[in-house]
Task: structure prediction
Amino acid sequence: MIKIGFVSLGCSKNQVDTEVMLGLLDKAGYEITSEEIEADVIIINTCAFIESAKKEAIDNILDIAWLKEHRKLKKIIVTGCLAERYREQILQQLPEVDAVVGVGSINNICDVVERALKGEKCTSFEDKNTSALGGDRMVITPTHSAYIKIAEGCDNRCTYCAIPLIRGKFRSRPIEDIVQEAILFDKDGTKELSLIAQDTTRYGVDLYGEYSLVKLIRAICEKTSIPHIRLLYCYPDKITDELVQEIKNNPRVLKYIDLPIQHINDRVLGAMNRHGGSAVIKDAIKRLRDEVPQIVIRTTVIVGFPGETQEEFDELLSFVKETEFERLGAFTYSREEDTPAYDFEDQIDEEIKDERLDSVMTLQAEIAQRYCEKQVGKVLDILVDEYDAAAGAYVGRSFADAPDVDCCVFFDIDGDKTKYKQGDYVKVKITDFEGYDLIGESIK
Result:
């Protein structure tokens, strides 16, 4: 029995691709192992969105290569965004790699494994704009909290972003297909379903001629009993009044939205080719907060974009301070080849980028502390993710926390470690906080 190991890097969308490949390999009769030291073949599903992600992918390839020399590992197969973006270069520059599979060829993974095991150095790069979407998955995370990828690719063409180059044009999955997958998760006891895509709010335009995210949400709610749906990767220019009302009025839609703005200065937004300027961003936030007062908004911003002046950065900093996003991630601009911004003049020094990043995150830490202070004394519904033996506490999340990217709630420290199980909802009274995380005690 050939044992297949997997390393999945990058975002939740990449994780879904990993699970589709695992499902195919399992169906084909391969044994899937989580122990890399036991694997005959290891598939590394990579990210290549920014420079740090590419470095992480290459480091993982080199680390896994040690197993070829010292353990039973026979073949290394590289898939995902790095594979799609650099294709032949990987085999040329990383001789440790035996096969390379593009994002449009994940359904060919069994054939590639078979060819590699026969000694062939092979590649597979089918058209990413026509490849099948979806597929049966072997879920590698606890199913109480699951992702469904509702679309692939992106048409936004932000000047700093390589995703359209890597992932191709925006393509939605049919509502019926997504609902069938949601039904399977419902049968597995999923409590929280996160809808993901490169641009979730664009869902359905290519299939139905109109924004159809609300229709999809309602279809999932009609056909399943999954208690909560979370919306990730939504764009400010596509926050329709219909969507705002669905978030407000549908009790199964968590009062949370991931709304990347990237900047607030109109000149910078224009240079980024972001759709809609500062007025659109401010209007979307105002409508969400006016209609859904308890909503938690997560955003991301980029500092050090080519030509960003100190005054333009100060405008962004002031906006972050004024808006007080409950959740915020910040990144320094990464200069990516084959993107328009790569050739822009006035590239910013790395030292200045880092200083601006520190300023944003220092400010956000203060905002987060004030948010945490307001939670003390409240009773929150917490979804249990695990029992952390090292912390001696249960770890879970409230509606305000998306998996993998946001904060956690630690509760019942040194308490009964058999009282709750993964996927339980527990009422927790918040008593304290540490950094970005909350601390509390369960109550009856």
About this structure: The mean pLDDT is 94. The two ends are 49 Å apart (CA to CA). The domain at 141-258 is CATH 3.30.750.210 (Transcription Regulator spoIIAA).
